[in-house]
Amino acid sequence: xxxxxxxxxxxxxxxxxxxxxxxxxxxxxxxxxxxxxxxxxxxxxxxxxxxxxxxxxxxxxxxxxxxxxxxxxxxxxxxxxxxxxxxxxxxxxxxxxxxxxxxxxxxxxxxxxxxxxxxxxxxxxxxxxxxxxxxxxxxxxxxxxxxxxxxxxxxxxxxxxxxxxxxxxxxxxxxxxxxxxxxxxxxxxxxxxxxxxxxxxxxxxxxx
Length: 208
Fold this sequence. Notes:
With about 210 residues, this protein is mainly β. About 0% of the residues lie in helices and about 50% in strands. The protein contains no helices and 34 strands. The strands form 4 sheets. The protein has a 12-stranded parallel β-sheet, with no helix packed on it. Strands 2-5-8-11-14-17-20-23-26-29-32 form an 11-stranded parallel β-sheet, with no helix packed on it. The protein is elongated. The N and C termini lie far apart (about 60 Å).
């Protein structure tokens, strides 16, 4: 029911249920699901075979590998790459230092700040803006309330609905229709198979 403070690594074959916060200085290997009511601070990498339910924020210094879904009530700060087999539901913003590979859909209440590429197999629904230094590869549709700033190319298999402006440094490949409420600035070429509805001006550095 209370907090857990551990200086070294943790290896656990079964599930973990903890009502309070968790502070771990080393790596964590957990075979089953994890249910944690408070915040989690982990200095090393995390390997988790089952789903993860976390009520508070998560701060992780190393990479994260998770076989199932992830439900996180607060913000997430991750220093290394993230590989997640199932869907992700996150109530706050996400700050990620390494690349992200996600097998299922992603639902995010706040913005995404990410310096590396992001690969998502399902749809993405972020509540805030996206700031991404690398490319984004997305198998499903994308719905975004705020602006999008992307340094690399964008490859999207489904439709895109964006409420704010869009700034992309590289090329854009979009399989479905595009609806954009604000202006669009695109540094590279654009390939769009469906219709495009744009509320503001469009500035394109290459042919469309």
